[in-house]
Design brief:
Number of strands: 19
Structural class: alpha+beta
Strand content: 15-25%
Largest sheet: 7 strands, mixed
Distance between the termini: 82 Å
Shape: flat
Length: 608
């Protein structure tokens, strides 16, 4: 029961209208965002003693100090607003699906004169037709198979603007393109090839098998054994895919089945995809959600998941959703796919939903330890970090910075981001140090954070959202320069530093380090983000250093001007590769002559 008088009063005054409610902790951090058909009924359930609550809900309620709500015109509007607020604030107790879960697809624009097949992991509302998800072999293997059997274009040339003496690329000469660029096929003939490729991607693999089998035998007879092995690998991949396509219906139908299973502590959603009357895909996702029931969890999941996988027009679920029509409308707005959501009770569709539910239950049962570990190392670690370091704000978004250089040359910095304890690679940024002379890591750190804070003040979105916590790699020195940058910019952000070796954590306001337990999830999170920032900085430094090394080292070599340095770098990439090159290889570089190549080779090996 609630003892807070203000909360009791707010609960009594909740409206009988649809809307969104937001749970806050004592420091004003958003813990959870939910939607309700009737705000009064839904929110009161969280605090009513007689309501059965899962461990996840009880854990959240132990931190709740306040709530607010926003009234909407309808439950559909509430669902849309809930989804928007979740993406904006990334609350720790909501479902937060990451893009790295996405499977690849193959897409093609069938309205083009000469359609091209490409791979993508990003689904959009556009003119393309998508095939997938591809769970075996990867999109690259599928594109290789397509090129071997259906020779279609891979270039981006505009065939209407090519010169008269244009020559086709290598793909034409090796039989992987039919060269419409030089009129080897008409639009009608090319369209027939594309239609056959589309039939293969839609599940008809008979022609592909026949062609690949013939190519494999022909290559073997010519003793081209590596090529024959490649065709054999393609055939094995198709066999593996075919084994997954279990016939389940006598109808050529497309369905998406979703089932949610919960044990009160953890929750799993299974997605079983049926295309052309066959099961082609089944995947389980462990989700973290503090909703009061499975229907609420599944609705929130679908609102996020629809942007990650191409859904069809019919969705079937194992629980009645409170506003299936509103959810279908939201999916349409997000993806352009008009769909309907049902909870079947009888016959084949019920049997398929039950199959999806059994998969979810099995995964939940057998993967309990793994699910617990993932929660502890992500959401749990974030909560623990706040408690152990006595942070005012929940560190939902953590940014970590590291400096990399060799004796002050090619100085760079990295910014990596973890959201709710997980890598958020799309938010990573990298810097070239502009104002610092020599190898001064302290000043370099100050410059980078000053640039970051100025961008934050401008709210231009280049660096993403405002961080809840900034971690700098180093000890008190790095932390002091970070503090100076923050104060000079007139902003306020939680700052800590993590020193190497002893893994000591320094915070503002004290010179004494904080010792986090060695086996704590909070310390492991800090170590992981520090190591990731170091990796990202080193990777950028090496790329920049290799790019600059040839240009800088060869600056004083007689006969090697700016143009030749650029061409040498373009060909050899690094000084190590250039030193290993022969005179002939150097001479073949654009703009080089044989005498100059011999002179450069001698200069490169003068110490040998």
């Amino acid at each position: 029961m609630i003892t807070n008088v203000d909360l009791q009063t707010k609960l009594k005054n909740l409206p009988d209208e649809p809307g969104v409610y937001i749970m806050y902790d004592a420091d004003g951090n958003i813990l959870y965002v939910g939607k309700a058909k009737v705000l009064k009924n839904r929110v009161r359930q969280y605090f009513h003693a007689s309501t059965n609550k899962s461990e996840k809900v009880l854990a959240m309620l132990s931190h709740v100090a306040d709530f607010r709500y926003i009234i909407t015109a309808s439950e559909t509007d509430a669902l849309s607003l809930e989804n928007t607020l979740i993406k904006k604030h990334t609350p720790p107790y909501n479902i937060l699906l990451k893009d790295d879960k996405q499977y690849p697809y193959i897409k093609v624009n069938l309205s083009a004169d000469f359609p091209k097949f490409t791979s993508t992991r990003k689904l959009q509302k556009d003119k393309y037709k998508y095939f997938g998800p591809i769970t075996q072999g990867g999109a690259k293997s599928f594109l290789e198979i397509l090129g071997s059997v259906f020779p279609t274009v891979t270039c981006n040339n505009n065939f209407n603007k090519l010169p008269k003496n244009f020559r086709p690329c290598l793909n034409y000469h090796i039989g992987r393109c039919c060269a419409p660029c030089i009129g080897k096929v008409t639009k009608e003939e090319y369209r027939k090839i594309v239609n056959r490729a589309v039939a293969f991607l839609s599940g008809d693999d008979s022609e592909v098998r026949e062609v690949l089998q013939a190519k494999m035998m022909a290559a073997s007879e010519k003793m081209q054994y590596e090529q024959a092995l490649t065709y054999k690998r393609y055939l094995q991949l198709i066999d593996k895919i075919s084994q997954q396509r279990i016939v389940v219906l006598n109808k050529f139908v497309d369905y998406d089945m979703f089932a949610v299973a919960s044990n009160g502590k953890n929750c799993v959603v299974n997605h079983t995809m049926i295309r052309g009357g066959k099961v082609i895909f089944s995947d389980n996702t462990a989700v973290s959600d503090a909703g009061l029931d499975e229907a609420q969890t599944l609705a929130s999941f679908l609102a996020e998941y629809c942007e990650m996988v191409k859904l069809c027009g019919e969705i079937y679920v194992n629980v009645e959703l409170p506003d299936s029509e509103g959810l279908a409308e939201l999916i349409k707005d997000k993806t352009g796919v008009k769909t309907q959501i049902y909870c079947p009770k009888l016959q084949d569709k019920k049997r398929l939903v039950d199959m999806s539910y059994r998969n979810a239950v099995e995964y939940l049962t057998k993967s309990q330890t793994a699910i617990d570990k993932k929660y502890n190392t992500t959401h749990g670690a974030v909560l623990q970090l706040k408690e152990l370091l006595h942070l005012k704000k929940l560190p939902t978004r953590v940014e970590c910075y590291d400096i990399s250089n060799v004796q002050g040359v090619d100085k760079v910095a990295s910014m990596v981001v973890f959201t709710n304890g997980q890598k958020d690679a799309s938010q990573y940024r990298r810097f070239r140090i502009k104002t610092v002379e020599g190898a001064n890591d302290f000043a370099s750190m100050k410059e980078v954070l000053t640039r970051r804070f100025e961008r934050m003040k401008q709210d231009d979105g280049v660096f993403g959202k405002t961080p809840d916590l900034i971690v700098v790699d180093g000890g008190l020195g790095q932390l002091e320069y970070a503090r100076q940058a923050m104060e000079e910019c007139g902003v306020e952000v939680q700052l800590v530093s993590l020193a190497k070796r002893e893994e000591l954590v320094y915070t503002l306001g004290t010179n004494e380090p904080t010792f986090l337990p060695r086996n704590s999830y909070a310390l492991n999170l800090l170590i992981n983000i520090r190591d990731e920032s170091h990796r990202f900085a080193i990777t950028y430094f090496r790329k920049l250093h290799n790019r600059n090394s040839i240009k800088s080292v060869l600056q004083d070599v007689e006969g090697i001007g700016e143009k030749r340095r650029i061409e040498l770098h373009r060909k050899f990439k690094s000084m190590d590769n250039l030193r290993e090159a022969t005179v002939d290889e150097i001479a073949e570089t654009k703009g080089m002559t044989r005498p100059t190549a011999e002179k450069l080779y001698k200069w490169l090996h003068q110490e040998d």
